[in-house]
Amino acid sequence: MTDGTTLAPLGLGLAALGRPAYITEGRDAALGADRSVPAMRWRAHTMLDAAWDRGIRFIDAARSYGRAEEFLGSWLAADPARRDALTIESKWGYDYVGEWRMDADVHERKEHSLAMFRRQWPETLAALGGAPDLYLVHSLTPDSSALADAALLDALRELAASGVRVGISTSGPAQGDALDAARSLADSPFTVVQATWNLLEPSAGPALARAHVAGWFVVVKEAVANGRLTSAGDPVERVAEAARLAAADGQSLDAFAIGAARAQPWVDAVLSGAVTPSQLESNLASRGPATDASALAALAEEPAAYWTARGIRSWT
């Protein structure tokens, strides 16, 4: 855990590496036209090799990330000795339904039911070749049925008792409410959270700090706001100001954004969504910003507006 001077470690997220289309800005230019299964498998393995060689030991996947678990599983099978050094996180509660098409009308389908959990857990085991260390309900919101389904919660408690750490990921403007609700459940099975936190959308910070104090493992996703806080992002007002602050701090915009997340005192790991080794190197060069805290706070957008804009981003 970072103390504000020591940065939290970086992990590799496979959301943009396991399927042909995703919502990251600049992904078209980084990946090129070939999004075939063999091409994406090669890309995922290349990035996993790069991450391993640079000391990254936390890998994030999900059932809905296309073939991400399968790609990770085949990479692990090629050198099983690596498994014990890794912390592997995956998620259930969404199906990938994009049929490996760039132009799919729908790419993923959400369902937080006991039946979904019982179907997807064996699928995760088969794809990875074993159990992940952390297994999360994908994109829990305050109205999720998972918070009130007694049978599902019992099944998750049983999984936690087996040694797999059970948690939630969050999305949307009410991330903090969802996290507080999951944490305050009687005999809550949850002790891990993966949440969006970045310079444009830091609203979950207080709830993440509370989870940290309660002993939860805290993972930050989307620290570069799906590519908006990179050189590929549209330089609208707040992004342009973030770029100016990054330049004044002597960092690239993506490193500045990643470093701001890694410097939070409540975070245990921050995910890189890099799809090329050069992007990963830039993320790894991050350091905690020396920028005045009030200037960073002024970059925040209104959460509802942030999430509305995210929800209509194109899959490319």
UniProtKB/TrEMBL annotation:
Residue span(s) of domain NADP-dependent oxidoreductase: 44-287
Pfam families per UniProt: Aldo_ket_red (PF00248)
InterPro entries from the UniProt entry: AKR2_Oxidoreductase, NAD(P)_OxRdtase_dom_sf, NADP_OxRdtase_dom
SUPFAM superfamilies, sorted: NAD(P)-linked oxidoreductase
PANTHER family: D-THREO-ALDOSE 1-DEHYDROGENASE, NADP-DEPENDENT OXIDOREDUCTASE DOMAIN-CONTAINING PROTEIN
Protein name per its UniProtKB record: Aldo/keto reductase
Organism this protein belongs to: Agromyces aurantiacus
